[in-house]
Amino acid sequence: LYRSVLVVLLLLALAAPLALGMGFLGALAVRSGNMVLRGIGTLYVSMVRGVPDIIFFLFVPFAIDQGVEYARHRLLCPDWDQPVRQGNDFIVCAAAKMPLATDPAWMHNVWGFALALIAFALVFGAFAANTLHGAMAAVPQAQLETGEAYGMTRRQTFRRILLPQMWVYALPGLSNLWMILTKATPLLFLLGIQDVVFWARELGGQKTGHYEYPHPDWRVWYFLGVLAFYLTLTWLSQKVFDRLMQRLSHGQATAGGEALRKAAA
Predict the structure, then answer these.
(1) What span, in angstroms and rounded, lies between the C-alpha atoms of 23 and 145?
(2) Residue 206 above 80 pLDDT?
Protein backbone atom coordinates (compact mmCIF):
# COMPACT_ATOMS: atom_id res chain seq x y z
CA LEU A 1 0.00 0.00 0.00
CA TYR A 2 2.82 2.43 0.84
CA ARG A 3 4.62 1.54 -2.37
CA SER A 4 1.46 2.21 -4.36
CA VAL A 5 1.33 5.75 -2.93
CA LEU A 6 4.83 6.27 -4.29
CA VAL A 7 3.64 4.95 -7.67
CA VAL A 8 0.91 7.63 -7.77
CA LEU A 9 3.34 10.39 -6.75
CA LEU A 10 5.88 9.19 -9.32
CA LEU A 11 3.24 9.25 -12.06
CA LEU A 12 2.32 12.83 -11.16
CA ALA A 13 5.96 13.91 -11.00
CA LEU A 14 6.66 12.51 -14.48
CA ALA A 15 3.34 13.03 -16.25
CA ALA A 16 3.00 16.73 -15.35
CA PRO A 17 6.24 17.93 -17.04
CA LEU A 18 5.71 15.59 -19.99
CA ALA A 19 2.16 16.84 -20.51
CA LEU A 20 3.34 20.43 -20.14
CA GLY A 21 6.08 19.86 -22.71
CA MET A 22 3.68 18.25 -25.17
CA GLY A 23 1.20 21.04 -24.52
CA PHE A 24 3.84 23.67 -25.23
CA LEU A 25 4.78 21.99 -28.51
CA GLY A 26 1.10 21.61 -29.38
CA ALA A 27 0.42 25.30 -28.69
CA LEU A 28 3.38 26.31 -30.85
CA ALA A 29 2.11 24.06 -33.62
CA VAL A 30 -1.37 25.61 -33.47
CA ARG A 31 0.19 29.11 -33.66
CA SER A 32 2.61 28.12 -36.42
CA GLY A 33 2.51 29.84 -39.78
CA ASN A 34 3.25 26.49 -41.42
CA MET A 35 -0.04 24.98 -42.61
CA VAL A 36 1.12 21.40 -42.00
CA LEU A 37 2.27 22.04 -38.44
CA ARG A 38 -0.85 24.04 -37.68
CA GLY A 39 -3.02 21.22 -39.03
CA ILE A 40 -1.19 18.60 -36.96
CA GLY A 41 -1.48 20.69 -33.80
CA THR A 42 -5.15 21.44 -34.35
CA LEU A 43 -5.93 17.79 -35.10
CA TYR A 44 -4.10 16.61 -31.98
CA VAL A 45 -5.83 19.07 -29.67
CA SER A 46 -9.29 18.65 -31.20
CA MET A 47 -9.15 14.85 -31.37
CA VAL A 48 -8.02 14.30 -27.78
CA ARG A 49 -10.42 16.90 -26.38
CA GLY A 50 -13.32 15.49 -28.39
CA VAL A 51 -12.91 11.82 -27.44
CA PRO A 52 -13.60 10.47 -23.92
CA ASP A 53 -10.39 10.21 -21.91
CA ILE A 54 -11.01 6.60 -20.93
CA ILE A 55 -10.79 5.57 -24.59
CA PHE A 56 -7.29 7.03 -24.89
CA PHE A 57 -6.21 5.57 -21.55
CA LEU A 58 -7.20 2.12 -22.78
CA PHE A 59 -6.27 2.49 -26.45
CA VAL A 60 -2.83 4.16 -26.26
CA PRO A 61 -1.09 1.50 -24.08
CA PHE A 62 -2.72 -1.26 -26.13
CA ALA A 63 -1.68 0.27 -29.47
CA ILE A 64 1.88 1.09 -28.42
CA ASP A 65 2.40 -2.35 -26.89
CA GLN A 66 1.25 -4.13 -30.04
CA GLY A 67 3.15 -1.72 -32.28
CA VAL A 68 6.44 -2.34 -30.47
CA GLU A 69 5.91 -6.10 -30.47
CA TYR A 70 5.06 -6.07 -34.19
CA ALA A 71 8.22 -4.10 -35.02
CA ARG A 72 10.35 -6.48 -32.92
CA HIS A 73 8.62 -9.44 -34.55
CA ARG A 74 9.48 -8.24 -38.07
CA LEU A 75 13.07 -7.60 -37.00
CA LEU A 76 13.82 -10.63 -34.82
CA CYS A 77 11.70 -13.30 -36.51
CA PRO A 78 12.00 -12.82 -40.29
CA ASP A 79 11.31 -16.51 -40.94
CA TRP A 80 7.90 -16.47 -39.26
CA ASP A 81 5.42 -17.75 -41.85
CA GLN A 82 2.15 -17.34 -39.94
CA PRO A 83 0.00 -14.21 -39.89
CA VAL A 84 0.29 -12.01 -36.84
CA ARG A 85 -3.44 -11.34 -36.86
CA GLN A 86 -5.30 -14.60 -36.39
CA GLY A 87 -8.93 -13.69 -35.86
CA ASN A 88 -9.09 -11.70 -32.63
CA ASP A 89 -5.65 -12.89 -31.52
CA PHE A 90 -2.39 -10.97 -31.92
CA ILE A 91 0.39 -13.57 -32.05
CA VAL A 92 4.11 -12.79 -32.35
CA CYS A 93 7.14 -14.96 -31.75
CA ALA A 94 8.39 -15.36 -28.17
CA ALA A 95 11.50 -13.27 -28.85
CA ALA A 96 9.37 -10.29 -29.87
CA LYS A 97 7.37 -10.10 -26.65
CA MET A 98 7.78 -6.86 -24.74
CA PRO A 99 8.92 -7.59 -22.12
CA LEU A 100 10.00 -11.19 -22.53
CA ALA A 101 8.20 -13.91 -20.62
CA THR A 102 11.48 -14.71 -18.85
CA ASP A 103 12.05 -11.13 -17.69
CA PRO A 104 11.62 -10.39 -13.97
CA ALA A 105 8.35 -9.00 -12.67
CA TRP A 106 9.76 -5.52 -12.13
CA MET A 107 10.41 -5.15 -15.88
CA HIS A 108 6.77 -5.96 -16.62
CA ASN A 109 5.72 -3.37 -14.02
CA VAL A 110 8.04 -0.72 -15.47
CA TRP A 111 6.80 -1.38 -19.01
CA GLY A 112 3.17 -1.11 -17.95
CA PHE A 113 3.90 2.09 -16.02
CA ALA A 114 5.71 3.60 -19.02
CA LEU A 115 2.73 2.89 -21.29
CA ALA A 116 0.38 4.48 -18.77
CA LEU A 117 2.70 7.49 -18.51
CA ILE A 118 2.62 8.00 -22.28
CA ALA A 119 -1.20 7.82 -22.25
CA PHE A 120 -1.44 10.42 -19.48
CA ALA A 121 1.04 12.71 -21.24
CA LEU A 122 -0.85 12.51 -24.56
CA VAL A 123 -4.26 13.19 -23.05
CA PHE A 124 -3.31 15.98 -20.69
CA GLY A 125 -0.82 17.42 -23.17
CA ALA A 126 -3.73 18.26 -25.46
CA PHE A 127 -5.56 20.12 -22.69
CA ALA A 128 -2.34 21.90 -21.75
CA ALA A 129 -1.86 22.91 -25.39
CA ASN A 130 -5.29 24.52 -25.46
CA THR A 131 -4.58 26.36 -22.19
CA LEU A 132 -1.16 27.60 -23.31
CA HIS A 133 -2.48 28.68 -26.70
CA GLY A 134 -5.13 30.78 -25.00
CA ALA A 135 -2.53 32.25 -22.64
CA MET A 136 -0.30 33.22 -25.56
CA ALA A 137 -3.23 34.93 -27.26
CA ALA A 138 -4.02 36.83 -24.03
CA VAL A 139 -0.68 38.68 -24.01
CA PRO A 140 -1.37 42.17 -25.41
CA GLN A 141 -0.46 42.33 -29.08
CA ALA A 142 0.76 45.91 -28.63
CA GLN A 143 3.63 44.67 -26.47
CA LEU A 144 4.77 42.28 -29.18
CA GLU A 145 4.57 45.02 -31.78
CA THR A 146 6.60 47.30 -29.53
CA GLY A 147 9.31 44.67 -29.27
CA GLU A 148 9.41 44.34 -33.04
CA ALA A 149 9.56 48.15 -33.34
CA TYR A 150 12.70 48.09 -31.19
CA GLY A 151 14.31 45.74 -33.68
CA MET A 152 13.66 42.40 -32.03
CA THR A 153 13.20 39.36 -34.22
CA ARG A 154 10.08 37.21 -33.84
CA ARG A 155 12.12 34.68 -31.87
CA GLN A 156 13.45 37.36 -29.52
CA THR A 157 9.96 38.81 -29.06
CA PHE A 158 8.63 35.37 -28.23
CA ARG A 159 11.41 34.61 -25.77
CA ARG A 160 11.64 37.99 -24.03
CA ILE A 161 8.05 39.27 -24.07
CA LEU A 162 5.50 36.58 -24.85
CA LEU A 163 6.99 33.64 -22.97
CA PRO A 164 7.56 35.37 -19.59
CA GLN A 165 4.09 36.96 -19.55
CA MET A 166 1.99 34.06 -20.79
CA TRP A 167 2.42 32.03 -17.59
CA VAL A 168 0.33 34.39 -15.48
CA TYR A 169 -2.58 33.83 -17.89
CA ALA A 170 -1.93 30.10 -18.18
CA LEU A 171 -1.51 29.28 -14.50
CA PRO A 172 -5.22 29.18 -13.53
CA GLY A 173 -5.95 26.72 -16.33
CA LEU A 174 -2.82 24.69 -15.61
CA SER A 175 -3.70 24.49 -11.92
CA ASN A 176 -7.13 23.10 -12.81
CA LEU A 177 -5.46 20.66 -15.19
CA TRP A 178 -3.13 19.51 -12.40
CA MET A 179 -6.13 18.86 -10.15
CA ILE A 180 -7.81 16.83 -12.89
CA LEU A 181 -4.58 14.90 -13.47
CA THR A 182 -4.37 14.16 -9.76
CA LYS A 183 -7.94 12.86 -9.69
CA ALA A 184 -7.32 10.79 -12.83
CA THR A 185 -4.52 8.72 -11.30
CA PRO A 186 -6.98 6.03 -10.09
CA LEU A 187 -7.30 5.12 -13.79
CA LEU A 188 -4.02 3.26 -13.25
CA PHE A 189 -6.22 0.62 -11.66
CA LEU A 190 -7.97 0.09 -15.01
CA LEU A 191 -4.61 -0.34 -16.75
CA GLY A 192 -3.60 -3.20 -14.49
CA ILE A 193 -1.17 -1.21 -12.34
CA GLN A 194 -1.37 -1.85 -8.61
CA ASP A 195 -2.02 1.68 -7.40
CA VAL A 196 -3.45 2.91 -4.12
CA VAL A 197 -7.04 2.17 -5.20
CA PHE A 198 -6.13 -1.42 -6.06
CA TRP A 199 -4.55 -2.05 -2.67
CA ALA A 200 -7.34 -0.28 -0.78
CA ARG A 201 -9.80 -2.72 -2.32
CA GLU A 202 -7.43 -5.67 -1.97
CA LEU A 203 -6.42 -5.14 1.66
CA GLY A 204 -9.82 -3.94 2.84
CA GLY A 205 -11.73 -6.94 1.57
CA GLN A 206 -12.33 -9.95 3.74
CA LYS A 207 -11.42 -12.31 0.94
CA THR A 208 -9.93 -11.65 -2.48
CA GLY A 209 -8.84 -13.77 -5.40
CA HIS A 210 -5.43 -14.33 -3.82
CA TYR A 211 -5.72 -13.83 -0.07
CA GLU A 212 -8.09 -14.39 2.83
CA TYR A 213 -7.74 -11.89 5.68
CA PRO A 214 -8.67 -12.50 9.33
CA HIS A 215 -10.86 -9.39 9.52
CA PRO A 216 -14.32 -8.33 8.27
CA ASP A 217 -14.88 -6.10 5.25
CA TRP A 218 -12.84 -2.97 5.97
CA ARG A 219 -12.89 -1.50 2.44
CA VAL A 220 -14.85 1.56 3.55
CA TRP A 221 -12.05 2.52 5.95
CA TYR A 222 -9.33 1.93 3.37
CA PHE A 223 -11.20 4.01 0.80
CA LEU A 224 -11.66 6.77 3.39
CA GLY A 225 -7.89 6.70 3.74
CA VAL A 226 -7.56 7.06 -0.04
CA LEU A 227 -10.02 9.97 0.13
CA ALA A 228 -7.90 11.66 2.80
CA PHE A 229 -4.77 11.10 0.71
CA TYR A 230 -6.21 12.78 -2.40
CA LEU A 231 -7.78 15.64 -0.43
CA THR A 232 -4.45 16.34 1.26
CA LEU A 233 -2.63 16.20 -2.06
CA THR A 234 -5.02 18.60 -3.78
CA TRP A 235 -5.01 20.97 -0.77
CA LEU A 236 -1.22 21.17 -0.78
CA SER A 237 -1.25 21.64 -4.55
CA GLN A 238 -3.67 24.57 -4.26
CA LYS A 239 -1.41 26.24 -1.69
CA VAL A 240 1.57 25.92 -4.03
CA PHE A 241 -0.38 27.30 -6.99
CA ASP A 242 -1.66 30.25 -4.94
CA ARG A 243 1.89 31.12 -3.94
CA LEU A 244 3.13 30.73 -7.50
CA MET A 245 0.29 32.85 -8.87
CA GLN A 246 1.14 35.63 -6.44
CA ARG A 247 4.77 35.51 -7.49
CA LEU A 248 4.00 35.57 -11.22
CA SER A 249 1.45 38.38 -10.88
CA HIS A 250 4.01 40.73 -9.34
CA GLY A 251 4.55 43.65 -11.72
CA GLN A 252 2.11 42.32 -14.33
CA ALA A 253 -0.69 44.38 -15.91
CA THR A 254 -3.37 41.98 -14.72
CA ALA A 255 -6.04 42.00 -12.02
CA GLY A 256 -3.72 40.03 -9.76
CA GLY A 257 -0.85 42.43 -10.36
CA GLU A 258 -3.11 45.42 -9.71
CA ALA A 259 -4.25 43.90 -6.42
CA LEU A 260 -0.63 43.45 -5.35
CA ARG A 261 0.17 47.07 -6.19
CA LYS A 262 -2.84 48.33 -4.19
CA ALA A 263 -1.90 46.13 -1.24
CA ALA A 264 1.66 47.45 -1.28
CA ALA A 265 0.42 51.04 -1.42
Answers:
(1) 25
(2) no
With contact defined as beta carbons under 8 Å apart, do 141 and 205 qualify?
A: no
- Cβ count within 10 A of residue 223: 15
Partners of 89 in beta bridges: 86
| Cis amide bond preceding 186, omega within 30 | no
**Residue 149 amino acid letter:** A
List the one residue out of 127, 121, 120, 136 whose CA is nearest residue 46: 127
How many Cβ atoms from other residues are within 10 Å of residue 182's Cβ? 17
Helix (H, G, I), strand (E, B) or coil at 212: strand
Mean predicted confidence (pLDDT) in 158-180: 88
**Amino acid residing at 233:** L
Q: Which residues pair with 85 in a beta bridge?
A: 90
Contact 44, 174 (CB under 8 A): no
DSSP state of 152: -
Task: With a cut of 50, say whether residue 146 has pLDDT above it.
Answer: yes
Q: What is the value of pTM for the model shown?
A: 0.79
State the Cα torsion 39-40-41-46 to the nearest 10°: 80
User: Can you name the residues that pair with 212 across neighbouring β-strands?
Assistant: 207
Residues 6+ apart with CB under 8 A from 200: 1, 219, 222, 223, 225, 226
Q: Does residue 254 surpass a pLDDT of 80?
A: no
DSSP of 79-132 = T--S-SEETTEE---GGG-SS-TTS-HHHHHHHHHHHHHHHHHHHHHHHHHHHH
Q: Tens of pLDDT along 15-47?
A: 999 999 999 999 999 988 889 999 999 999 888
